[in-house]
Amino acid sequence: MPYPRRLLLDDEEIVLDLHPHCRRIAVPVLALPVVAGVGAYVAGIGPDSAAYRLGVLVVAMVLLALVSLRRLTRWHTTRYVVTTRRVILRSGGRRRSGRDVALHRVTGIALDRGMADRLFRSGDLILECAREQIQLVLTDVPDLPQVHRTVYELAELAEQDERAEQAAARGS
After folding, report:
1. Rounded Cα distance, 107 and 165, in Å
2. pTM above 0.85, yes or no
């Protein structure tokens, strides 16, 4: 589901709409066939009773919920949106939280990538805003080099537009 247009400003367009890298959900996705296989094996070698098989099913469902559900939900509800005017971080299911940074306020863009991040072309994008002395950290961003380049270009354009608006206001 794309980021809602009603939450954007009138002259704002979505450039990138991303979730964290899909490797975050590898363990939950792989857990399903593993737990199903182990559950079927345990149900098959145990006593031939409905209560035993029901017990194995309940244990398998609890294991899947513990291993998978929280991670899948966290991945699905975390969103990184880059628009023509700002960078938006939204996360959370029951309790939503978010941070927005206007692109013309970005004073620095940093990357943090480990060895595994480089293999998957992902990593952390850190946006610094000197005026507010804040950092916005987007964790495990997919295709980090391209996202970095896009955010940098948009921040440069936003800064140029801001300077032009200030010069026009002083000239009026």
Report:
1. 18
2. no
Q: Rounded to 5 degrees, what are φ and ψ at 72?
A: -65, -45
- Burial of residue 10 (number of CB atoms within 10 Å: 0-12, 13-18, 19+): exposed
Q: Which residues contact 86 (CB under 8 A, 6 or more apart)?
A: 12, 100, 101, 102, 103
What does the DSSP assignment read for 106-132?
A: --EEEEE--HHHHHHTEEEEEEEETTT
Tell me: the pLDDT tens digits for 33-68?
898 899 889 988 989 899 999 999 999 999 888 888
Q: How far apart are CA 38 and CA 123, in angstroms?
A: 34
Topology of domain 84-171 in CATH is: PH-domain like (2.30.29)
Q: E-strand spans in 37-167?
A: 79-83, 86-91, 97-102, 108-112, 122-129, 134-142
Q: Per DSSP, what are the bridge partners of residue 15?
A: none
Q: Burial code of 25-60, b = ≥16 C-beta within 10 A, e = fewer?
A: beebeebeeebeeebeeebeeeeeeeeebeebeeeb
Under the banding of pLDDT at 50, 70 and 90, the label for residue 96 is: confident
State the average pLDDT over residues 63-88.
Answer: 90
